[in-house]
Specification:
186 residues, globular
């Protein structure tokens, strides 16, 4: 088996050609990527469900818009907390994934993490790929791989994140941000 170069902490940005409706114009933060597979959360799929409706104790710490995000099509009944914590060390109950971005143990008492949190998003479900599956999709041109920024996790306008992430890229990739929602109307 060949060694997989880890993409943990990077963003997968759906190409306009990606036909899967679960990932239409999706921006996925990869939380884990190795030779056993990949796991990430879709950053730009807010739901109408408030964090207070499902995890009341975390509601006051969740960033705007204060709703649960659909992290992907797998295990929609499971919740993941992703937070940005500035500095070198995070509190007990937080595991660094990449840079200032990490996973929150939602079983931990919120008051333990509250003072350290820069931002928090709650995701229902996740996006997952088996061994080699993501690499095949990348080879097929389904995703652009770009660097993440801590602000991506807490974007105040998640519905615009696909265009924003592409727009900040260099060269031709920035032009993809202008791709129309329905190219047949061009």
């Amino acid at each position: 088996m060949t060694e997989v170069s880890s993409l943990t902490g990077r963003l997968l940005v759906a190409t306009p050609a990606l036909a899967d409706p679960n990932f239409d114009r999706a921006v996925v933060l990869l939380l884990d990527h190795d030779d056993e597979g990949s796991l990430g959360v879709v950053l730009n799929r807010p739901t109408p469900v408030t964090v207070g409706d499902v995890l009341a104790s975390w509601a006051d710490l969740a960033g705007e818009p204060g709703v649960v995000f659909q992290g992907g099509p797998v295990s929609l009944d499971a919740a993941l907390g992703v937070a940005v914590i500035p500095g070198d060390e995070g509190p007990l109950g937080w595991r660094r994934v990449h840079g200032a971005i990490g996973l929150v143990d939602l079983e931990a008492p919120p008051e333990l993490l509250g003072p350290a949190l820069g931002s928090l998003r709650i995701f229902a479900g996740y996006a997952g790929w088996g061994p080699g599956q993501l690499e095949t999709e990348l080879g097929d041109g389904a995703w652009y791989v770009v660097e993440s920024e801590p602000g991506d996790v807490s974007s105040p306008t998640p519905e615009a994140l696909w265009r924003q992430v592409l727009r900040r890229q260099r060269g031709e990739l920035a032009m993809v941000a202008t791709y129309p929602d329905d190219p047949s109307l061009n």
